[in-house]
């Protein structure tokens, strides 16, 4: 039973619109890998030659530089997912404006390079289980992955399906090395083929599908993609910056070996973890650094099933803790952000949430004397409340239509235009679903603190579109990366 209107105001203002992880993700931690060619460095048993060929089959017949970009980008599945969504949201950008917008992103060079090949990047974003598996294979069995690509090319060539033409040049450099280059280095054609047919062997690629699959062994080509503007424009991630060194079995970027995700190669980030949920496609990455002055953590994630993207960070030392986070749902347009802190004297915080053109801002502060909170909505609604250490409480509020409400120590009052009226200890008037604080213009009902947008069996925003739209999310707590949508 909700005691008073003040309780409702306080719970709404104190409800964390967005609380992201203050510790590294615990799911699927990756062990640091050694550079390609030095042996397997992953967890469990290494993949067999046939399993690696299955993973590489969809991209083995691409031009060498494009293969290099894909292998490097696959070690960053979270960025691939983010870039795939970004492409959908910025389809109107072209030419120099598009390149400048891509260059401004924080993605790895390999991910930026793939934005010039939207069908390739989109396929990787839609098939994140395959992308993640391919990236891990390159990070932990790099030499074996490169060898698998060469085996596949030899099979396609032996079957009569890989040959030079007006789009690509196929060169047999040695019995073990087949190089594929574009005829025109500034116009790249991406081949389309059926991996189950083109190699003369029925490869079934786990976790991978495309919108249109070529049904025969013929390699088809779409419209050529002009990459000259990125090259001439001085963008360091352009097509000409990439290649495959088949002799040292590494991806090459600006003439040097490129091993991809630093989290898998000991990049000095402290504890780094990655996670992937094969049921809903959610990916996440987090890390923690600690020293004699304190601890700092950060995490980010994306769920393509719900459209939810989130990121957050926290820092702690002997003086207290401060955390911040942001979330955005591409399906609903809902967004939220928060900053929360605590120290020896109490806690404080401020949050903002927006949806359907309405924005709500809230603040709170708690110390040994009690709690104060306030919230204001762009639709005109506002509320202020306080509770003392001895249990006394009070709150006032106004809805978007001008109705006013007040509460003090169990007594509630309302003014809907005809003066003030009130009832002592009247709580039912404010508790019904049709007359709750939310229905009077204060925004949506607060989500229970135990729910989590990243997981939990309670249907958090990472599992359902409706929950994520509410803006309540957390990387901590539920840990429900195993739940289905």
Distance between the termini: 32 Å
List the quaternary state of the chains: single chain
Helix/strand structural class: alpha+beta
User: What's the count of strands?
Assistant: 23
Q: Major sheet: order of its strands?
A: 10-11-12-13-14-15-16-17-18-19-20-21-22-23
Mean pLDDT: 75
Number of helical regions: 13
What amount of the residues lies in strands?
25-35%
Describe it.
The chain is an alpha+beta fold. It is built from 13 helices and 23 strands. The strands form five sheets. It has a 14-stranded antiparallel beta sheet with strand order 10-11-12-13-14-15-16-17-18-19-20-21-22-23, with helices on both faces. Residues 1-38, 265-271 and 426-485 have low confidence and may be disordered.
């Amino acid at each position: 039973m909700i005691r008073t209107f003040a309780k409702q105001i306080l719970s709404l203002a104190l409800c964390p619109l967005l609380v992201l992880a203050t510790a590294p993700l615990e799911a699927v931690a990756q062990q640091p890998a050694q550079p390609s060619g030095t042996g397997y460095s992953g967890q469990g048993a290494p993949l067999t030659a046939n399993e690696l060929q299955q993973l590489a089959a969809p991209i083995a017949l691409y031009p060498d530089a494009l293969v290099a970009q894909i292998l490097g980008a696959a070690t960053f599945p979270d960025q691939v997912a983010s870039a795939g969504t970004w492409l959908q949201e910025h389809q109107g950008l072209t030419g120099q404006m598009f390149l400048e917008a891509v260059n401004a992103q924080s993605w790895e060079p390999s991910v930026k390079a793939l934005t010039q090949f939207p069908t390739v990047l989109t396929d990787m974003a839609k098939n994140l289980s395959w992308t993640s598996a391919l990236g891990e294979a390159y990070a932990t069995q790099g030499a074996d992955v490169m060898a698998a690509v060469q085996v596949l090319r030899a099979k396609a060539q032996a079957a009569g399906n890989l040959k030079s033409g007006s789009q690509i040049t196929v060169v047999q450099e040695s019995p073990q090395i087949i190089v594929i280059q574009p005829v025109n280095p500034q116009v790249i054609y991406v081949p389309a083929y059926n991996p189950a047919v083109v190699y003369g062997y029925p490869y079934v690629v786990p976790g991978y599908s495309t919108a249109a699959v070529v049904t025969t062994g013929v390699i088809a080509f779409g419209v050529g993609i002009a990459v000259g503007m990125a090259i001439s424009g001085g963008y360091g991630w352009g097509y000409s910056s990439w290649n495959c060194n088949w002799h040292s079995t590494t991806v090459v970027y600006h003439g040097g070996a490129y091993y991809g995700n630093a989290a898998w190669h000991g990049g000095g980030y402290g504890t780094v973890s990655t996670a992937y949920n094969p049921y809903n496609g959610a990916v996440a990455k987090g890390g923690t650094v600690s020293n004699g002055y304190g601890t700092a953590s950060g995490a980010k994630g994306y769920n393509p099933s719900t459209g939810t993207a989130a990121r957050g960070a926290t820092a702690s030392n002997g003086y207290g803790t401060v955390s911040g986070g942001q979330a955005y749902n591409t399906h609903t347009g809902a967004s939220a952000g928060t900053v929360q802190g605590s120290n020896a004297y109490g806690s404080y915080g401020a949050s903002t949430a927006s949806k359907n053109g309405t924005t709500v801002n809230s603040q709170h502060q708690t110390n040994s004397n009690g709690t104060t909170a306030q919230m204001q909505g762009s639709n005109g609604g506002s509320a202020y409340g306080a509770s003392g250490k001895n249990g006394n409480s009070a709150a006032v509020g106004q809805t978007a239509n001008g109705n006013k409400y007040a509460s003090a120590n169990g007594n509630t009052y309302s003014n809907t235009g005809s003066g003030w009226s009130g009832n002592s200890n009247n709580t039912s008037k404010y508790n019904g679903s049709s007359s709750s604080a939310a229905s009077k213009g204060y925004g949506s009902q607060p989500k229970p603190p135990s729910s989590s947008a990243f997981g939990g069996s309670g249907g958090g925003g990472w599992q359902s579109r409706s929950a994520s739209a509410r803006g309540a999310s957390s990387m901590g707590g539920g840990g429900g990366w195993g739940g289905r949508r």
